[in-house]
Task: structure prediction
Amino acid sequence: MEDEKKIKCVVWDLDDTLWEGTLLAGDALVLKEGIREIIQELDRRGILQSVASKNNHDEAFAELQAFGLDEYFLCPRIHWGSKANSIREIGDAMNLGLDTFAFVDDRASERGEVNFHLPEVLTLDAAGYREILSLKRMNPVFVTEDAARRRAMYRDEMERNAAEAEFSGSSEAFLQSLGMRLRIAAVTEADLRRVEELTLRTSQMNATGYTYSFEELRALIHSEDHIFLTAELSDRFGDYGKIGLALLERTADRYVIKLLILSCRVMTRGIGSTLLIHIIRRSLNDGKPLFAEFLETERNRAMYVTYKFMGFEEKTKDGKKILLAYASDIKREYPAYIQVSPAEPL
Result:
């Protein structure tokens, strides 16, 4: 288990897990010793948290509020249904793979049910809750500014989703209403930790999955043979943080996109296409043909579709490794619903 993916979300049971006692039995509930500090530290590390508990929702949530912990739990599922179903729903709501989830419960039967239906979820006995912070999968390589703000950014996203569900107009009209602002800039030394985090955390919207060490990333900033870009997004609901990354290799006769990475949180916002338009304009301005490397995985099909939609065609294919070439003469314009800064390529 320790060599698997880093945990992105911890889902807690409540009775005899988060607190001592059983709510329905009328026990005097007391938080387990040190549990508040564990929750706060996971939050600081950028690990999201939720609840899957068999309880009466209003009463249990009132207890979380009384303990001052309700703000830490996103998409809580408190009802009498299956906890495996609850975890699946939380994963869907957060748009996170369940192989990055951990579930903490005091009952072996509940952990067993989750193990059976969701074997990719890490299950932990609540009796060992003090060891959670020391688990390798609970320790990110580093804690970035964006990581420490991750819960707030996910809450902003839930507000966006709620607003979209209530919006009566077209999808494009809703996107227009967001007032999105995309800032594209050269990667700096101050960005490197977040850049490294993006390469390690993102799998669904990662065109190649290539990874670079911190020192390699630093060298790329100063390389005359590369163009290294980061994208930061904000809208009327708040700041998404740095959500995109592009690395172009520059040779005498071409540009090659070596990395194109987007946060899963912006999958439906047209950011991938917008960032590609920026890159296409750069290649046209410099008079060089544009190519892109793509390495097929089980989860990154959406990135391939984005390339095809933007006019890229397969040039060569070797197993799962594909070289795409930009083959369109259409003049590409940024979507009207996104304000891009700078408007012209760097």
About this structure: The first strand starts at residue 9 and ends at 12. The radius of gyration is 22 Å.
